[in-house]
Design goal:
The protein is an alpha/beta fold. It contains six helices and 14 strands. Strand 2 (42-49) and strand 3 (52-59) form a beta hairpin. It comes from Cytobacillus depressus.
C-alpha cells in the first residue's frame, strides 16, 4: 500500500489566477490547470509529483457533471481542501474482503465512470476504487485504488506531465493531518493499516518510504511534504486553501 494521490476541492481562482499559478511554479511544481479531465459539470487539474499527484477539483454545475455525488454535494455546501485520500493497493478484492471481515462499511470496488460530450459518451477509467467511510472528526475519507493491469499503469504514467521530477522533486514522503479523530475514525484506521504507532496525541502510519500522521489539534489542516533534491526549491511551500505543500 502506498500514497497515490490527494483529491482537493478548490475554488475557481486556483485553476485560473495567474499569480497563484506562478506561485505554484515558484516552488518547483509544474502546473498547467487547463490540462486534465472534465465535463460541463466539473474540472480537474493535476500537479504531478513523480508517480504521485494532487488532483484539484472544481465543480461547475449543481449535478457535478458525473463527478462523485457525495463529494459534489460537499463542494456545493462549501467544502474546500482535502476531500479524498487515495491509496494504491496490490489486490483491491482481497483488501475489500479483509475490511468487510472487520465490520468496516466499505463500498465494493468499482471503476470511475462519467458521461461527457453532452452526455452522449461514457468514459470509464482503467482502475477501480473502493471508498471507506467518511471520517467524523476530519472532513475527508480514504479510498483505495488499483489499476486494471501493468499496461494501464504504463498508459496512465505517460500522461503524468509536466512533472516535478524534472526539478528533482520526486514524490510525497509525508502527509500530516491536524484535527481530532473520533473513536470510530480510529477503528477504520486500525482496520485499514497494519503498521502504525499510537501515542497520546499522535497516530503514525508507516507505509515504507511514506508516512501519514494524525496529530491531535483543535484546528484542522493538512501538510504534505515532498521529497526535494534541488536546493533551489528546498523548504519552499505553498498553501492551497487549508492544505500546505512543502518541499523537504
Amino acid at each position: 500500500m502506498k500514497i497515490d494521490h490527494l483529491v482537493i476541492n478548490v475554488d475557481k481562482f486556483i485553476q485560473e489566477d495567474k499569480e497563484l499559478i506562478n506561485s505554484i511554479h515558484s516552488i518547483g511544481l509544474p502546473y498547467k490547470p487547463r490540462w486534465g479531465k472534465g465535463t460541463k459539470g466539473f474540472k480537474v487539474s493535476n500537479i504531478w509529483i513523480g508517480k504521485e499527484y494532487f488532483e484539484l477539483v472544481r465543480i461547475k454545475a449543481k449535478d457535478g457533471g458525473g463527478w462523485i455525488k457525495d463529494w459534489t454535494t460537499k463542494y456545493l455546501d462549501g467544502h474546500r481542501g482535502l476531500i479524498g485520500f487515495a491509496l494504491e493497493v496490490n489486490d483491491i478484492e482481497e483488501t475489500y474482503q479483509q475490511l468487510l471481515s472487520q465490520n468496516v462499511n466499505v463500498s465494493p470496488p468499482e471503476p470511475l465512470t462519467f458521461r461527457w460530450f453532452f452526455n452522449l459518451l461514457t468514459k470509464t477509467m482503467p482502475w477501480r476504487n473502493l471508498y471507506l467511510p467518511e471520517f467524523k472528526g476530519v472532513p475527508f475519507q480514504f479510498f483505495l485504488q488499483q489499476l486494471n493491469d501493468e499496461k494501464s499503469k504504463t498508459y496512465m504514467e505517460q500522461y503524468m506531465v509536466p512533472n516535478s521530477r524534472d526539478n528533482a522533486i520526486e514524490g510525497i514522503t509525508e502527509v500530516n493531518i491536524y484535527g481530532k479523530l473520533t473513536e470510530g475514525d480510529k477503528k477504520v484506521l486500525y482496520a485499514l493499516f497494519e503498521d502504525y504507532e499510537e501515542s497520546k496525541d499522535l497516530l503514525k502510519i508507516n507505509l515504507g518510504a511514506q508516512t501519514i500522521r494524525f496529530i491531535t489539534s483543535n484546528t484542522y489542516r493538512v501538510e504534505v511534504v515532498l521529497k526535494c533534491n534541488n536546493k533551489d526549491y528546498s523548504n519552499k511551500k505553498i498553501n492551497i486553501h487549508n492544505l500546505q505543500i512543502q518541499n523537504s
